[in-house]
Specification:
mainly alpha, nucleus
Length: 438
């Protein structure tokens, strides 16, 4: 009797799912992936064999509640045997050592008979080190560091007596380093008053985490006014932009209307050529021919020019006379101006010793980019905490330090460049591969 064997190879249908084009009718069924559909049909048939589709059955038919319990459990564990905790079982297995007695014992006298090894103590200060520290506290140092000025100055002129060696005479001479002009200049403060701004300004009472009511109210009102002014400027800018767009749209409409009128006038001109010219257009207009001026007209023009010259001369003399009369008044004004300038210089010299404020800054700043805005260091009334445990520290010391250096003129404001500008490269293919010989 012949032996029946299953067919060799993959029983599934041939699959060609990676064909790029499916536009032809022949490739519609041939290239459709139906593996998920086949798997679902197989699962459905298995569920039908086992008793029905699970999705179509009710919940009570799928689940059952066990209210009786396991009957065999009572046979395995009789009633007089009570199962204890696992922790008690583990302790019972490992508690071979007797418990420690609760009576008091003197632990110093009780020893195991082994003498302890003496070790040198390292957690104390020796007498020698103590005497040295006392001398240092009194100002007597064993070794003193002598402060000596730098012997080498990078901006100093090179010595002439130093001649290069003959073996290296062909090398170019080293250029003298030029001292920059700004090295001796003081940094320019960005304060509007020109006063120097301290590196770490003293905060006012309103900056505290537990401020006084008056200081906090004044600072809150000040910051609120700044926010309102910024919002007003933003709305004004939006309104100006809207008006600009409306004007542009209006001008575009007027231009279109003008073009339409021009096209209409051209059409009317063309109609005149076609024989539709009106009777009024047939009338010819005589142009006024140029003629020579008479002697009376020339004399009249000459007299008018002479009168204009005299009036201009009289006005200049009157202005000069008025200025001559005001010489004393002008001299008094100049003296008053000089006195006021001298007082301003004295005030500026006195104010230079005071500290500047970063609230009002100069209009012209250092560098091309604007100064970064200062963070709003203000806590709203509902965010104030009455306990240090709930306190949330705010601010960034790195940002404050960087902005302080910008305000004091130590450095210019820069813009962050995330990507460095790469050199442009052009890729070409050489034609050397075409130079071949047979």
């Amino acid at each position: 009797m012949p032996v029946l064997r299953p067919p060799s190879g993959n029983p599934d249908a041939p699959q060609q799912y990676k064909q790029p084009s499916r536009k032809g009718k022949k490739a519609w069924r041939k290239n459709i992936d139906i593996s998920e559909v086949q798997q679902g049909l197989e699962e459905r048939s298995e569920q039908i064999i086992k008793g029905g589709v699970l999705a179509e059955q009710d919940t009570p038919g799928l689940f059952s509640l066990d209210t009786v319990g396991d009957v065999e459990l009572e046979k395995r564990f009789p009633k007089h045997v009570k199962k204890g905790l696992k922790a008690d079982e583990i302790i019972a297995q490992r508690s071979a050592v007797p418990a420690v007695s609760a009576r008091k014992r003197s632990g110093d006298k009780t020893t195991d008979g082994i003498l302890p090894v003496k070790r040198q103590r390292t957690d104390y200060v020796t007498h020698k080190e103590l005497s040295r520290l006392k001398k240092v506290a009194d100002g007597h140092h064993e070794q003193t560091v002598a402060v000596v000025d730098a012997e080498y100055d990078i901006w100093a002129e090179a010595k002439e007596d130093q001649k290069p060696e003959e073996t290296f005479s062909f090398l170019p001479k080293a250029e003298q380093k030029k001292k920059p002009k700004t090295l001796e200049q003081q940094p320019i403060s960005l304060a509007a008053s020109g006063k120097p701004i301290p590196a770490v300004p003293k905060p006012k009472g309103g900056h505290s985490y537990n401020p006084a009511f008056t200081d906090y109210q004044d600072r809150l009102i000040e910051e609120s006014e700044k926010a309102v002014e910024a919002e007003r400027k933003r709305l004004a800018a939006l309104e100006a932009e809207r008006l600009k767009l409306e004007a542009a749209a209006r001008s575009a409409a007027e231009a279109e209307a003008a073009e339409a009128r021009a096209d209409l006038s051209e059409w009317e001109d063309d109609s005149a050529w076609e024989g539709f010219e009106s009777a009024g257009e047939e009338l010819s207009v005589k142009a006024k021919r140029p003629r020579r001026k008479t002697q009376a007209e020339r004399n009249r023009i000459k007299r008018r020019k002479e009168e204009e010259r005299k009036a201009k001369h009289e006005a200049a003399m009157k202005r000069k006379h008025t200025q001559a009369e005001r010489v004393k008044q002008i001299a008094l004004e100049v003296a008053e101006k000089e006195r006021r300038m001298a007082l301003e210089k004295i005030e500026m010299s006195d104010a230079s010793e005071e500290e500047g404020d970063d609230v009002k800054l100069r209009r012209r700043q250092l560098g091309k980019f604007k100064l970064p805005e200062k963070d709003l260091e203000l806590v709203l009334p509902d965010e104030l905490q009455d306990s240090l445990r709930l306190l949330k520290p705010e601010g960034n010391l790195l940002k404050d330090r960087y902005r302080s250096m910008l305000l004091r003129g130590k450095m210019e404001s820069r813009r962050k460049i995330p990507f460095r500008k790469q050199a442009k490269s052009k890729i070409t293919e050489k034609w050397a591969f075409k130079d071949f010989s047979i």
